[in-house]
């Protein structure tokens, strides 16, 4: 700190450092510090900023304090202002200062709400976001005490509890031991990086496959040795492992030509690496590490890997062969590598797509012939196979997102395998292609067997993880081929677009193999199996054509199956089923003639099996239902159509044939039924689905006709689940588009505006806690990074060879640096980068709804009583357009209905003026004059009409030239030449809300900003002061979204039609009923003259 600080401040800082002083400081100390900065002596670069010093002396700063709001008292310049690096650093410092002041304002708003008796109940309220990575197999709850990728010593006679305890003890012992240093880098058990990935961008090469083949051979040898030991064991042990003996006896040997293929790759890898036979990687960790490295390269480069997108090049021969000798050499090369018609002769560079297809086919064939064809044997080798393939699937999933040839190769092979299976089912012919669908089903069988056997829990989790990875990999292939439409913000349009070749390939893959396999899993009694299949199907339906998606809705049997999956009634009590299996007196036993093929796979001879299966079913059943509900929502979104016209969301989004069929099936009451579930996962997804479908007028009309709909809405807002209330706020906001919903929403008890303001305050508290947590973690990580870096520098200066021998030094530093770059800074939690977090969405939706609620003097008084104006003032400077424009709309709409507002209503009126002018000034400087700009223009013009606000405008103009231009030039130039009510929001964007797997805005609609898929402008629609009478199409039954939208028959003026098509189709019937059709036509003057 600076030496020129006041003496009282220095003494207080010393006492705080020693720990002698606690609680708030002496007022004289705070006064001395204020005088020091107000006199101009305070320099943030030398002595620290005012806010920093206030925090260090134990005082609480106020957001309305000018020493807190002004940046010159808290941050300092670095270098000459104007340089690019300096401007970036300065901008970051300004953002940090604004974020810190905003968090202070949040705390003051919460204190104000507590004084007014509108505080929230933080003991019951909560936000529980579900981790998308661990929600498919129950691994987050059924978790081992150590890394599941590191197999512990196995004792198959132990149950899960004993095994976990032994693993925990082993882990603690390993943690206490010092790290062993490498002394023999060329030993057979060590890793040589030259064996795989010699070039940084080599990608999925033959060297990688050759090393994988070598590792598989070693695993097979260990498996055979284990089998031999079991066969030579005493009678007691042999009886325990009798099931494994049968499995090992039935192992299939790989085909001869595949073995020859493996040896060829193995020899080629040895030759290319200077015959380093002892450096061939033989560890599981090495294969997984190389998969992770390839995955990271695909992510960083974001393009296909390889030299000029060619993963391998055939060796160039010194002289060109010709004639019979050349043809003989080509045939020999084809025989060695197992090539066929697509093999390219040596000396020519292969096409990238052909290379990828060849390598993908080889790799998947290895999975099929070497790993997944064998039944799970002992727990180590069984889980090792699953972990290896799972790591490769994750790598290929990342590669597929940036290299479409990976998807094309896998899709083509799967379609060919499916066709060959159909052709060879009668004559048992063997086919060369391998389908991922078959591998997925085989993995599922192994997962069920391992889960019900005496093997440890970590082995069962490994197989379930592989099953979910393969299932989602199939979905990723189709999503990538269809153009990643799951993240597309816009709805489908009425204009028909032809399918691309990749879309046709994806449709064929889905129709031939993926859809039947996933539907079979959705019908399964096992919740873990259903959960992965439902999630994969939910991703797929966003990209496939409406005709294919209709196949999930139109057949009554399939629709009933999806409904049962959402309700969770397909879940079976596995333990009870196995208990009744051997009881002849109960239904479902073998003696009664019924068969339970899937459940019969479970062996319930031990308590371990029963507990494990019961726990997994209990965990996965609600998650499976939630994924089923999400599938229903995505089907609705796929069926929505955007009309080619401008207007409010309720007028431009109409249900297409798919959505109309779902409405006929009763999707609205079905989602209402699911929303009443006691499980939070199911109810949140159901309410979110209703929030999405409520963009359509037909769904809003159907919803208001449901019994006890007001009581149902009340149950949503009294829920302690923040995710559910957040979706309910979005739903209520959409319902306010129709005037018939206005009074029912106002009748909700407790008053809906008070409930939403309480939730907004709770969101502020969560944002504060999250910012403090991220700030603490970032500081800890930065300290560790500096300590590790300094340690390496000191050891290097002392010529300590341990730095070079131990690779953990560099890897730890790189890992820490990567974590620091990937972590979102605390000051950016409320920006567009972190806007999709549940608390940020809930706060934004709360502000948007309250701005829409203000329509007349009655609602204005209710909003003022709930302290909503203070909420709007607190959110005016949130760096998200949806939130700050909605906050300005709260004040602007109140001014439009009440006439004027006194500065005394706001805790800091200077902040209201300054934040609105600052936001408008940025838009003017960027020449970004959008409808959002007029929100702030309307607000500032409304405030300027009241002379009580003049001092605040003058103070703002005196301190900033840009603000002065806005106040004295821009605002008078526009004047009142703007509509009294702001323009209606644009078309809502699909997936913007109500779906945790989609990024989007808080309001469920689109914005005028083309740079991102933000939510709609949060402006309130002008209320129509006349009773709403909506007409119905006489042909199709569709209800118009606004009065006067449909055309009526010009003859009778009674019958309405939604368009020319319906009128033409209904004309023959209406022709007989039209009362004035037979009336004589009027004869004009011209006709009379002719007569």
Automatic annotation (TrEMBL):
Residues 181-192, 241-250 have a biased composition (Polar residues). The keyword Endoplasmic reticulum does not apply. The keyword Secreted does not apply. Keywords: Metal-binding, Zinc, Zinc-finger. Residues 1-21 have a biased composition (Basic and acidic residues). SUPFAM superfamilies: ARM repeat, HIT/MYND zinc finger-like. Residues 321-334 have a biased composition (Basic residues). This is MYND-type domain-containing protein. It comes from Seminavis robusta.
């Amino acid at each position: 700190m600076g030496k020129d600080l006041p003496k009282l401040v220095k003494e207080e800082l010393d006492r705080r450092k020693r720990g002698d002083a606690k609680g708030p400081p002496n007022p004289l100390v705070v006064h001395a510090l204020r005088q020091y900065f107000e006199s101009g002596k305070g320099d943030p670069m030398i002595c620290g900023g005012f806010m920093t010093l206030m925090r260090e002396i134990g005082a609480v700063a106020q957001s309305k304090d000018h020493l807190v709001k002004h940046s010159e008292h808290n941050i300092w310049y670095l270098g000459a202002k104007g340089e690019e690096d300096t401007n970036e650093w300065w901008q970051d410092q300004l953002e940090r200062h604004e974020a810190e002041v905003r968090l202070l304002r949040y705390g003051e708003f919460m204190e104000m709400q507590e004084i007014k008796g509108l505080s929230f109940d933080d003991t019951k309220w909560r936000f529980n976001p579900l981790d998308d990575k661990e929600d498919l197999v129950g691994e987050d709850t059924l978790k081992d005490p150590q890394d599941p990728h590191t197999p512990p010593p196995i004792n198959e006679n132990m149950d899960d509890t004993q095994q976990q305890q032994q693993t925990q003890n082993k882990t603690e012992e390993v943690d206490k031991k010092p790290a062993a240093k490498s002394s023999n880098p060329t030993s057979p058990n060590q890793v040589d990086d030259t064996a795989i990935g010699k070039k940084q961008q080599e990608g999925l090469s033959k060297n990688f496959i050759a090393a994988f083949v070598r590792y598989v051979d070693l695993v097979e040898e260990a498996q055979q040795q284990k089998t031999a030991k079991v066969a030579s064991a005493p009678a007691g042990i042999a009886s325990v492992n009798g099931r494994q003996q049968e499995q090992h006896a039935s192992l299939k040997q790989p085909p001869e030509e595949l073995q020859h293929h493996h040896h060829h790759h193995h020899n080629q890898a040895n030759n290319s690496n200077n015959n380093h036979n002892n450096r061939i990687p033989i560890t599981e960790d090495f294969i997984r590490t190389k998969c992770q490295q390839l995955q990271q390269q695909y992510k960083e480069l974001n393009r296909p890997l390889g030299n000029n997108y060619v993963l391998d090049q055939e060796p160039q021969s010194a002289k060109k062969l010709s004639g019979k000798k050349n043809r003989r050499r080509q045939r020999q090369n084809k025989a060695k590598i197992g090539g066929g018609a697509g093999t390219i002769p040596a000396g020519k560079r292969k096409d990238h797509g052909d290379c990828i297809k060849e390598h993908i086919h080889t790799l998947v064939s290895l999975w099929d012939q070497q790993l997944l064809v064998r039944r799970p044997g002992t727990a180590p080798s069984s889980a090792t196979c699953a972990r290896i393939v799972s790591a490769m699937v994750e790598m290929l999933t990342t590669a597929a997102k940036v290299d479409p040839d990976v998807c094309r190769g896998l899709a083509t092979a799967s379609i060919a395998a499916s066709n060959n299976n159909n052709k060879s089912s009668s004559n048992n012919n063997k086919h060369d292609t391998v389908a991922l669908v078959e591998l997925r089903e085989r993995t599922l069988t192994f997962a069920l067997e391992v889960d019900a056997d005496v093997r440890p829990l970590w082995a069962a989790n490994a197989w379930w993880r592989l099953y979910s990875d393969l299932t989602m990999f199939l979905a990723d292939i189709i999503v990538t081929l269809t153009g990643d439409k799951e993240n597309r913000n816009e709805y489908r349009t009425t204009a028909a677009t032809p399918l691309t070749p990749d879309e046709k390939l994806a449709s064929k893959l889905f129709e031939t193999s993926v859809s039947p396999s996933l539907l079979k899993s959705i019908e399964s009694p096992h919740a873990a199996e259903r959960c992965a299949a439902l999630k994969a199907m939910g991703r797929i339906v966003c990209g496939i054509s409406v005709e294919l998606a209709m196949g999930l809705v139109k057949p009554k049997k399939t629709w009933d199956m999806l409904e049962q999956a959402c309700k969770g009634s397909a879940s079976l009590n596995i333990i009870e089923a196995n208990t009744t299996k051997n009881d002849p007196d109960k239904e479902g036993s073998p003696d009664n003639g019924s068969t339970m093929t899937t459940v019969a796979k479970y062996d319930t001879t031990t308590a371990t099996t029963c507990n494990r299966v019961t726990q997994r079913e209990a965990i996965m059943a609600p998650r499976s239902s939630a994924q089923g509900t999400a599938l229903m929502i995505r089907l609705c979104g796929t069926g929505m159509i955007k009309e080619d016209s401008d207007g409010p969301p309720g007028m431009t989004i109409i249900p297409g044939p798919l959505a109309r069929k779902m409405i006929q099936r009763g999707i609205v009451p079905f989602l209402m039924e699911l929303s009443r579930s006691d499980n939070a996962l199911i109810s949140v997804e159901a309410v979110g689905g209703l929030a999405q479908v409520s963009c359509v007028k037909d769904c809003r009309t159907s919803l208001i006709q449901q019994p006890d709909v007001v009581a149902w809405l009340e149950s949503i807002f009294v829920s302690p689940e923040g995710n559910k209330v957040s979706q309910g706020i979005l739903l209520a906001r959409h319902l306010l588009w129709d005037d018939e919903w206005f009074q029912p929403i106002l009748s909700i008890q407790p008053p809906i505006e008070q409930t939403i303001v309480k939730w907004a305050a709770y969101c502020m508290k969560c944002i504060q806690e999250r910012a403090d947590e991220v700030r603490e973690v970032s500081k800890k990580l930065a300290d560790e990074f500096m300590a590790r870096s300094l340690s390496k520098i000191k050891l290097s200066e002392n010529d300590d060879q341990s730095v070079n021998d131990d690779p953990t030094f560099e890897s730890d530093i790189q890992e820490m640096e990567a974590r620091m770059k990937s972590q979102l800074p605390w000051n950016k939690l409320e920006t567009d980068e972190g806007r999709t977090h549940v608390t940020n969405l809930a706060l934004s939706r709360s502000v948007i709804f309250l701005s829409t609620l203000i329509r007349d003097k009655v609602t204005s008084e209710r909003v003022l009583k709930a302290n909503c104006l203070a909420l709007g003032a607190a959110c005016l400077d949130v760096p998200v357009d949806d939130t700050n424009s909605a906050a300005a709309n709260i004040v602007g709409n109140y001014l439009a209905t009440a006439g004027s507002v006194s500065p005394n209503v706001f805790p800091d009126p200077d902040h209201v003026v300054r934040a609105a002018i600052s936001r408008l000034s940025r838009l003017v400087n960027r020449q970004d004059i959008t409808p959002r700009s007029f929100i702030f223009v309307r607000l500032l013009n409304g405030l300027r009409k009241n002379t009580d606000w003049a001092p605040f405008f003058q103070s703002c103009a005196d301190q900033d030239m840009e603000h002065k231009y806005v106040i004295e030039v821009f605002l008078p130039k526009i004047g009142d030449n703007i509509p009294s009510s702001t323009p209606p929001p644009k078309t809502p964007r699909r997936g913007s809300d109500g779906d945790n797997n989609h990024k989007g805005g808080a309001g469920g609609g689109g914005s005028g900003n083309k740079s991102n898929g933000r939510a709609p402008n949060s402006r309130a629609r002008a209320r129509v002061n006349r009773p709403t009478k909506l007409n119905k199409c006489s042909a199709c039954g569709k209800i118009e979204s606004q009065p006067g939208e449909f055309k009526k028959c010009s003859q009778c003026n009674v019958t309405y039609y939604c368009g020319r098509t319906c009128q033409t189709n209904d004309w023959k019937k209406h022709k007989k009923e039209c009362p004035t059709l037979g009336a004589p036509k009027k004869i004009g003057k011209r006709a009379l003259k002719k007569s």
